[in-house]
Amino acid sequence: MTTSNNGYPTGHRNLARAAILGLVVGDALGVPVEFIGRDEIMMQPVTGMRGYGTHQQPPGTWSDDSSLTLCLAEVLTAGYDLQRIGNSFVKWLHQGLWTARGQVFDVGIATMEALGKLANGVQPDQAGGTSEYSNGNGSLMRILPLLFYIRYKPGPERFEITRQVSSLTHAHVRSVLACFYYLEFLRLVCEGKNKFEAYSATNGILTAKLQELSVTGSEAEHFNRILQGDLRTQPEEAIRGSGYVIHTLEASLWCVLTSDSYREAVLKAVNLGEDADTTGAVTGGMAGIVFGEPSIPNEWVRQIARMEDIERLIVRFQSVYAEACL
Fold first, then answer.
1. What is the distance of C-alpha 75 from the center of its chain?
2. Which residue among 71, 140, 200, 274 sits deepest, i.e. has the most Cβ atoms within 10 Å of its Cβ?
3. pTM of the entire structure?
């Protein structure tokens, strides 16, 4: 059987399933060790799906990362509507929509504040915070389904739609650009570039976008480690798993660039500690696409909460974005 340069059997790629399952599994792997420091985790590192821990949830339980990702995916099955996406997020927070076990047990401060504004009628792309301190990873963690909606659109339109969806909760240019980078990297992988080619090319795209937006000086410097092009040579000690959006983007890239499989990448991610579920989710979505859906261990997938519901959503999503999911 011939394979593409990303390792998929030719003609058998299922990008949406790889992305969504990859993200949910990575999230669930990290939930039990969220907020735990790396030194403590390394005394008993995560090697597979386990439960309880930080949030006292059974194995296979996913967090707000997956919930909001699934909310976005579901809305996109009926087309792009920013207000409906925002309403779906509010329904998650207040009614438990797309929660793993019927309750919200984890929500970021910036997301909580933005969803409060949305519930009170604030214009959707004006709800997210714009301050220096509004650069958590809360939009990066849920942006992935948008890839399949914008994949074939012109560059300026891809950026604008990404800006809008990020700005529901995180409107600072740094968070928007992190989401844009993530989606552009994965778009290039979907087009057939290997992960190293995609990394190099995405650095060029982001450099051009920084210039276009006149993002210079200290703001542009936040992306320096990524744009220098040698992130994969950084030692693990230099990679952070915190809730800061740049740390999450760097960590997910580092985990994928330095790994040879989905399993290796996501275990590296959650064992970085700190915001383990989100690092696992962002890395997992990326690794699912880079290494392929068959690379996600079945023994992990089988333990995921509401797996039948997720599968049904994936089928609906693929039926709408069939071409973009291949």
1. 17
2. 140
3. 0.96
